[in-house]
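INPUT
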Amino acid sequence: MRELSLNVLDIAQNSISAKASLIEIEILESTEKNELFIGIYDNGKGMTKEQLEAVRDPFFTTRTTRKVGMGIPLFKMAAEMTGGQLAIESEVGKGTKVKAFFRTDHLDFTPVGDMTSTMLTLITMNEVLDFVYTRTADNKSFTLDTRSLKEILGGVPFSEPTISLWLRDYIEENTKQLTEV
Amino acid sequence: MKTLEELMALRDAARAQMTTRDDSGEVTRIVVGMATCGIAAGARPVMNKFVEEIAKRGLKNVTVAQTGCIGMCQHEPIAEVLVPGEEKVTYIQLTEEKAAKIILEHIVNGKPVAEYTVGALKK
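OUTPUT
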């Protein structure tokens, strides 16, 4: 994957497949410590201990069409290449948490990339699901919660062109503000 | 800066427009493969391009949806175009440029872009 935002999009698809109704995505950056944390949490059906063991293995997948699943292994590799790590916590009936730590000063660190596109794709393609997106850069933070936006929208879908354009700019502008001094 | 007040205004405008929208006629579907293979090959910008072109041209009754792995990972990004009453067309190895052309030629003018389809693959 060319940027971490694509890994996030991919891992969130697992949450969607696991019938989650709420997916939380958290990105924390510390410029001082040169650390990046990405968390993807869902309230989907969760995994058993056996599944949890197997999911790091590229030759494990719940899919029946093919015998490989590369999502988690690729994300894990991206983290470990920088000297970071990946952890997964899961409980049947409760949900799954995927947490990845990265060293941003490592040569092999993949940039976060276009998280706005990832969030926009997730939100507009899954109108019935809810997303909470939190982006923190040092001491500044921005949170987007589709539940409060839906209250305003009152049934008008995010995929409506004028609404999705607003959403794109809203996420983009708020993200930019985080890095402004 | 975008504000929530703006969102409220856009909501009201969208509502007014939605009531005047033509509900008759069947919906054309564009389905983009968004599994690991598709995403890694560049499905996200392709899907965004489809959505953008549809919005730009004000096309009604065309929706973009995502699906999992279509089963030909080496040919991703892949999209299927399903026009009601016509045979499904599978496009492979898509780019943003190809997506724009598909909207114009296939969706607007009704003529599938044969050179981008899976059928055009050299045996």
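end of record. Chain B has one domain: 24-120.
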